Fold ABC transporter ATP-binding protein.
Amino acid sequence: MGSLKIENIKKSFGSVDVLKGIDLDVTDGEFVVFVGPSGCGKSTLLRIIAGLEDSTSGKVLIDGDNVGNVPPAKRGIAMVFQTYALYPHLTVKNNMSLGLKQAGEPADEIARRVGIASSMLSLEPYLERRPAELSGGQRQRVAIGRAVVREPKLFLFDEPLSNLDAALRVNTRLEIAQLHRRLAATMIYVTHDQVEAMTLADKIVVLNNGQIEQVGAPMELYNSPANEFVAGFIGSPK
Ligand code: ADP
Ligand code: MG
């Protein structure tokens, strides 16, 4: 299970209205991409979904439960950041294990999950290395592995490819797509890159200036953009 319902989410920082009333339904197992220009509110919306930030008004329901009422460890959400956010002093294995240890999982269960995730993400040769001894692509795979071992029902990705060079972006994107097929988990993926959006999404949510411009399947948006902004952003022919 990993369904999500967003009801009229608004967020202001001081007098600035960053999210102006967002409504969205995500069904279990869906791959949803939030796309929009820098500063339109994508990361803020993702943090509100994760329960890392409170909205000014509105509700986020995960499998029917208001996310704010569920303790962070029980939300079944794992987030992957643009900057990887790994612990520099811990090995790859320990970066992936730490959250499970803190949650009180037994050692054999931790070993089992780390084994599966490192095999899925081709991380076995690097388990004893520290982040500084890895390339950017390998670091991001560790960050993704750390999310996978938690067996979340909802994955949140915030521009996970932005710090990678072009070839690695393609590879890592394909790995994320493969992960989605294997795990059948719900994934929400933020990007400002329309190629990532078009290739990964079951459903694209086009955001602009704190509002949703259009929601639809990639080809639906491409063929029938709701307005000039969507057409320009998705690259529809004029
Ligand atoms: P995106 O991820 O789409 O680039 P963000 O959600 O990070 O956009 O930011 C949306 C807007 O909210 C920006 O104008 C940003 O400056 C502002 N903002 C984000 N976080 C804060 C904060 N903690 N305090 C004040 N303003 C913020
Ligand atoms: Mg952002």
User: Anything to note?
Assistant: The helical segments are 42-50, 92-102, 107-120, 136-148, 166-183, 194-200, 218-223, 228-234. The pocket of magnesium ion (ligand 2) is lined by residues 42-43 (CB under 6 Å).
